[in-house]
Amino acid sequence: MAEDSLKNCPFNGDTCVKKRVFVFGKGKSEGNKNMKALLGGKGANLAEMASIGLSVPPGLTISTEACEEYVVGGKKLPDSMWEEVLVAFNIVEKEMGAFLGDPIKPLLVSVRSGAAISMPGMMDTVLNLGLNDEVVVGLASRSGVRFAYDSYRRFLDMFGDVVMGIPHTLFEAKLQHLKNAKGVQLDTDLMDLDLKELVEEYKNVYLESKGEKFPSDPNLQLKLAIQAVFDSWDSPRAVKYRSINQITGLKGTAVNIQCMVFGNMGNTSGTGVLFTRNPSTGEKKLYGEFLINAQGEDVVAGIRTPQNLDAMRSSMPEAYEELVQNCEILERHYKDMMDIEFTVQERRLWMLQCRTGKRTGACAVKIAVDMVKEGLLNKRSAIKMVEPQHLSQLLHPQFDNPSAYKNKVVATGLPASPGAAIGQIVFNAEDAEEWFAEGKSVILVRTETSPEDVGGMHAAAGILTARGGMTSHAAVVARGWGKCCVAGCSDIRVDDTSKVIVIGERVIKEGEWISLNGSTGEVILGKQALSPPALSKDLETFMSWTDEIARLKVMANVDTPEDATIARKNGARGIGLCRTEHMFFASDERIKSMRKMILAVTPEQRKTALNALLPFQRSDFEGIFHAMDGLPVTIRLLDPPLHEFLPEGRLDEMVAELAAETGLSEVEVLSKVEKLSEVNPMLGLRGCRLGISFPELTQMQALAIFEAALSVSKQGIAVHPEIMVPLIGTPQEFVHQANLIRGVAMKIFSETGSFLDYKVGTMIEVPRAAFVADEIAREAEFFSFGTNDLTQMTFGYSRDDVGKFLPIYLSQGILEADPFQVIDRKSVGELIKMAVEKGRKANPNIELGICGEHGGDPTSVAFLTEVGLDYVSCSPFRVPIARLAAAQASV
């Protein structure tokens, strides 16, 4: 049947209309598990369960394309579609030997939504559709008065709430009033006559609320329910769910209409929900709940307190054994943990639904490893079962129960660095460090951060900024440290003077407790409970498989020896970016020497300041070479504009501070500061332009690298330094800097009589560099794409200001994704592709990588695998996620 149907797709009959309705049941189906895009997850899995011989109540699925047609057509159900539904429904009726609206042989159905991707809570289920005053009498004669009228009153409530938009509370009020009048507490204490009375009261709710009678025609009920499912696709909660979870590209929701089986036909009936393994831990044991004499929504909606599945084993042993067998069949068939809904009607088991079960990170990893051990999966298939957010859960602290704090969320920004943090708020880096030294947990709140804040950022449990995007200073630094960060939170106003956060009418003062969810961007009042990262032997095993399979190497972006140690621990295969500028902020002595160099008037003054910086740089490089122990280390020469190294604050205060530090007069300092001032510093004197303007700066850094490398090499440790020149736009710029570096190398090798291999390469981050990549590749030994700046210059977006308009662009569909998080294939992606092709053509041995934050994004990693890069580099804490993404891109 399935093959015949699929042969006829996509057209059906003489009308040449795409097939929109698919029947399933009794060991045959018109669909299968591979048709989720068309039938939705529920519909595809129902069809699959039926086709493999499980006891599935028959039914039909209306496709997602039909939903799209309904929405595009002005939310009207085309006559041809309705006719197709009736034809398919007639097949189901004949299979069941029961008919919709027939009092003698009544057929009741459930109506559910089901998109290709599970979206919990999109539209509630309607059960018992088909009941009216005539049908309920026929049902009562077959199944008893109590069962029939209990089913009828449930249907009136559900249909009114879900389809007609009548608040459930109105029905609940009628029920409570009747129970009070009868002097009973439980629904089950109501007598048969009471239920009949309740049905009349529920029908009155329709008149009172809608001014119209309850629609008693079963065909009209079905039509209205189908339309309600289609309408739910654009409901606010569905739209919000898709937005939060970045679900795009779906046509709509399918509609699943399925014959009812009843779990509320006495003590030999019941209903339940289960997972084939524990969804929290991954333990191989059925995990679920069961209710005797109940319908499915009683379990899902929490109307009654269910029992453990063991209760079913003792009360219905035969049905339980069949359920266990079915679970084993489904796991073997789907090769995954399944989420199953079932009903037992008078001791007979019916499987109502199955889908891939939602799970925690710990569960996902354990199931993947266990299923390989059990022979259900091979390693390549297991790699695909774990999602990046699963690893994120394992590597960062999380909130115990996010649903518990929903009413305390006061603002939402960008989820710049995952994890969770709680702390008392402070407004400057100095206070953060002081409070941290006193043993306090702090959240550093800034309008935006600068490199001068790094001490406070490091001390803080979490960081909150009012401005800045996903690749702002705060975001990049926080991710590098694995520290929770919410950036670009435009809901808040930071008043540094008064030391308060203003959110609308609310004022939060210094020292008050807040919590941050860096995975969602939520800012929460008070202290919320945290769970620590959960690492395991299974995770170690799983990550070893990713390295076996991945074609791309994963490197790390680091600033300090401590970062390098973490990177190696997390599985980095080397350092893809060591940012030398961050080393200058490590102590007051370093930053003061740096400022003396910047403000130097003569070359001699500059050389003196650089000589003071040399031992600091050399010491840090030695620490990094030690930590990486034989792995390659790529060191970027100084990149940011020099003004970033100057103190913040009022100009007169800054000038006085710098004069005191450097011994220059305030007039000399003011003159120099004014010369450093730029209209657009991110496109000004930075990167290789600094090294060309001040060649002694490049020479000092190269000398520190080679002295450190030779020192560590003499200790018997293999060292592989790779020196990277930033912001190259022309081959001439690269040649200038490369000659300086190689000149320093030749001099020190000659003086010491020691030699080692090294490489000199460049970052491709200026669009022009991509266009002349072949010319640059003739001189360079490697390229590393700096996608943060490449994106900034390609789009013309300031990455520190993008938070002001990017949320609007994303919500209105102007952009599909944040280009600073996911590589835009049409622009930045094309530049990368062109540079790769030109570079490899000119220099087949050139090594190609990426060191922008995109190196930790799974979607971007898949693209970079396609274009043929050799490695990606990301923050140390994103290395495991990048390793997973690289493996998944290779299978």
UniProtKB/TrEMBL annotation:
<dbReference type="InterPro" id="IPR015813">
    <property type="entry name" value="Pyrv/PenolPyrv_kinase-like_dom"/>
</dbReference>
<dbReference type="InterPro" id="IPR036637">
    <property type="entry name" value="Phosphohistidine_dom_sf"/>
</dbReference>
<feature type="domain" description="Pyruvate phosphate dikinase AMP/ATP-binding">
    <location>
        <begin position="37"/>
        <end position="71"/>
    </location>
</feature>
<feature type="binding site">
    <location>
        <position position="765"/>
    </location>
    <ligand>
        <name>Mg(2+)</name>
    </ligand>
</feature>
<dbReference type="Pfam" id="PF00391">
    <property type="entry name" value="PEP-utilizers"/>
</dbReference>
<feature type="binding site">
    <location>
        <position position="765"/>
    </location>
    <ligand>
        <name>substrate</name>
    </ligand>
</feature>
<feature type="binding site">
    <location>
        <position position="636"/>
    </location>
    <ligand>
        <name>substrate</name>
    </ligand>
</feature>
<dbReference type="InterPro" id="IPR000121">
    <property type="entry name" value="PEP_util_C"/>
</dbReference>
<dbReference type="GO" id="GO:0015979">
    <property type="term" value="P:photosynthesis"/>
</dbReference>
<dbReference type="GO" id="GO:0016301">
    <property type="term" value="F:kinase activity"/>
</dbReference>
<dbReference type="Pfam" id="PF02896">
    <property type="entry name" value="PEP-utilizers_C"/>
</dbReference>
<dbReference type="GO" id="GO:0046872">
    <property type="term" value="F:metal ion binding"/>
</dbReference>
<keyword id="KW-0067">ATP-binding</keyword>
<dbReference type="GO" id="GO:0005524">
    <property type="term" value="F:ATP binding"/>
</dbReference>
<feature type="binding site">
    <location>
        <position position="788"/>
    </location>
    <ligand>
        <name>substrate</name>
    </ligand>
</feature>
<feature type="binding site">
    <location>
        <position position="787"/>
    </location>
    <ligand>
        <name>substrate</name>
    </ligand>
</feature>
<keyword id="KW-0460">Magnesium</keyword>
<feature type="binding site">
    <location>
        <position position="789"/>
    </location>
    <ligand>
        <name>Mg(2+)</name>
    </ligand>
</feature>
<feature type="domain" description="Pyruvate phosphate dikinase AMP/ATP-binding">
    <location>
        <begin position="319"/>
        <end position="374"/>
    </location>
</feature>
<keyword id="KW-0808">Transferase</keyword>
<feature type="binding site">
    <location>
        <position position="579"/>
    </location>
    <ligand>
        <name>substrate</name>
    </ligand>
</feature>
<keyword id="KW-0479">Metal-binding</keyword>
<dbReference type="InterPro" id="IPR040442">
    <property type="entry name" value="Pyrv_kinase-like_dom_sf"/>
</dbReference>
<feature type="active site" description="Proton donor">
    <location>
        <position position="851"/>
    </location>
</feature>
<dbReference type="InterPro" id="IPR023151">
    <property type="entry name" value="PEP_util_CS"/>
</dbReference>
<feature type="binding site">
    <location>
        <position position="786"/>
    </location>
    <ligand>
        <name>substrate</name>
    </ligand>
</feature>
<feature type="domain" description="PEP-utilising enzyme C-terminal">
    <location>
        <begin position="535"/>
        <end position="889"/>
    </location>
</feature>
<dbReference type="InterPro" id="IPR010121">
    <property type="entry name" value="Pyruvate_phosphate_dikinase"/>
</dbReference>
<dbReference type="GO" id="GO:0050242">
    <property type="term" value="F:pyruvate, phosphate dikinase activity"/>
</dbReference>
<keyword id="KW-0418">Kinase</keyword>
<dbReference type="Pfam" id="PF01326">
    <property type="entry name" value="PPDK_N"/>
</dbReference>
<keyword id="KW-0602">Photosynthesis</keyword>
<protein>
    <recommendedName>
        <fullName>Pyruvate, phosphate dikinase</fullName>
        <ecNumber>2.7.9.1</ecNumber>
    </recommendedName>
</protein>
<dbReference type="InterPro" id="IPR013815">
    <property type="entry name" value="ATP_grasp_subdomain_1"/>
</dbReference>
<feature type="domain" description="Pyruvate phosphate dikinase AMP/ATP-binding">
    <location>
        <begin position="75"/>
        <end position="310"/>
    </location>
</feature>
<feature type="binding site">
    <location>
        <position position="789"/>
    </location>
    <ligand>
        <name>substrate</name>
    </ligand>
</feature>
<keyword id="KW-0547">Nucleotide-binding</keyword>
<comment type="similarity">
    <text>Belongs to the PEP-utilizing enzyme family.</text>
</comment>
<dbReference type="InterPro" id="IPR002192">
    <property type="entry name" value="PPDK_AMP/ATP-bd"/>
</dbReference>
<dbReference type="InterPro" id="IPR018274">
    <property type="entry name" value="PEP_util_AS"/>
</dbReference>
<feature type="active site" description="Tele-phosphohistidine intermediate">
    <location>
        <position position="473"/>
    </location>
</feature>
<dbReference type="InterPro" id="IPR008279">
    <property type="entry name" value="PEP-util_enz_mobile_dom"/>
</dbReference>
